[in-house]
Specification:
With 615 residues, this protein is of the alpha+beta class. The chain is 42% helix and 17% strand. The chain has a five-stranded antiparallel beta sheet. The protein has a five-stranded mixed beta sheet with strand order 8-9-10-11-12, sandwiched between helices. Strands 13-20-15-18 form a four-stranded antiparallel beta sheet. Helix 3 crosses helix 5, helix 5 packs across helix 8 and helix 5 packs across helix 9 (194-205). It binds glutamine. Glutamine (GLN) binds next to loops.
Length: 615
Amino acid sequence: MNPVSPLVAAWASSKPPLLRFLDRCHADYLAENGGDVAHYIPELSKAEPSHFGIGLATLDGHVYEVGDTRVPFTIQSMSKPFVFALALDSLGASRVESVIGVEPSGDPFNSIRLNTDNHPFNPMVNAGAIACSGLIHEAKGNGAFEHIRRELSRFAGRDLDVDEAVYASESATGDRNRAIAYLLRTNSVITDNVSAVLDVYFRQCAILVTARDAAIMAATLANRGINPVTGEQVTTPYAIARTLSVMTSSGMYDYAGEWIYRVGIPAKSGVGGGILASLPARLGLGSYSPRLDKHGNSVRGIKVCERLSAHYDLHMLNRSDDARTSIIADYTIGKNPSRRSRRPHEQEILAAHHQDVRVIELVGTLSFSNVDYISRKLAKRPRPQFVIFDLRRVTAITRAGARMITEQFRELADFRVTVILSGIKRSSEGWKIMREWTEGLHNIRDFYLLDAAIEWAEDQVVYRHGGSIDFHETTELSEQPLLAGLAAEELKELAALGATRTYRRGEKIVGAGEAATSLFFLQSGVVHVTLPDGVRLATLTAGMAFGEMALLEPTRSADVLADASATAVAIAIADFEGFRNRHPRAGERIMRNLAQILSERLIVANTKVNLLTAT
Ligand code: GLN
């Protein structure tokens, strides 16, 4: 047996850089023993101070875990952003905003001070959070807590329990919160029974989560409300943006300004020892370590967040974006015509008017900046009649991008330019979005295949310039490029070997994977050659051969389908071989013709590939 090489063994246990980084944070800060567990809720003082777990959830639903990430602890104030989001969604922004402010207080979390309207400063401090619980109680009555528990469970992607001991402990000792709640009630922020509302609040604070849960909950906030692990849309993007706003300004209480200045990631802490940090469009972090600093924030948790932000330069205000990467190819049909073989007079018209069809191939996300850049590129060249936007490599479109691209389409309509979209399947989400955004516009067409889009635009150009698309017929084998240079008698002999076949529109003539037993010379109609994955290789009209790869390969590599009813002469490969044996000179000529045809195809294919890298 071969010994396993050390590299092979090491590869199996290799770790992604991000996990290694979290490992290092964990190892380094495990020695950090500053701060103390919360004592003001007696049950919390029993927490194991050495516990330390870090979870990080990515927006593609992966969760990195280091240390005690499965140890449950009470969520405490980390419940506040989620209950605020819930209040926004279930009662509406105006109702919520009518009793709770959104200004940072600069005070500790349990401050008894209200703002000048006698409202809580914001939903991240106790006063505001109790007010939120009051609103949910107003809407749901006795079902309020269960409503909250279920909502938080959707954020975490699993059913969350309550720590009854912590709940009872806080309920028995929470006089400061009681004072706050009565103050809210005399100012009509709370309208229901104070103890019923506090009961909801104390219970919500006693919900048990782990660092892993906190990471997923934070990632759901970072992902416009879609839980990246379960895929569920938990809250509206509206509520998410508002929630992250108050986390940014007030999530860390009287340390909030310092926090956003140094770390730059919206976050929320809880006296249970948890911190969740949510970087929009990037990640959610959850940490658990119960020793707290004087603000009530986990000491180690803060260090992890600071280091993560500094090491990977994640401060949310330190961003840039290069809009120019969204166009990967930009050309006219002069450079890259469709794969449809054209008659000489069509070719002439298309050559003279190639500027009429502009193709822009896009990639990645269509955002505000990307679409703006695209629109300026478009305006730089002469006005085309047709613009094809190929969206096959577009992965996302932001709301701003969608709005701006529709504005661009409208502008093009005013200039009588037809917009053709390719690369979006009609069954896809993207197509629905495009439909929505282009509703009422009459200058839009779509083709799934870029080649079909180009072909259609070419046809329109030919028509507009008085040309006709001439589907001529030919029974002459002498017109076939594959047979160029053969003598009349040779052609006659070949013709005698063939059988004339007719095909209905849509009929499959040859199928990929079948034995290649004959080759065909098209006499009338149109056929197209497509790969099994739907990529169209060529559209052929009368006078062209197909299935000729049978001369080289025993198995068909592509499908050939009749576009319109078609007639072709089929010659069995065995018969063709016999002919080549009888006429070696002609046989060699045919193989040379084939080599030339293939090399021309290769040149076309290379041009297409180069187009993608040249811009
Ligand atoms: N339940 C705790 C309280 O009201 C929550 C405080 C916090 O986590 N900062 O005191």
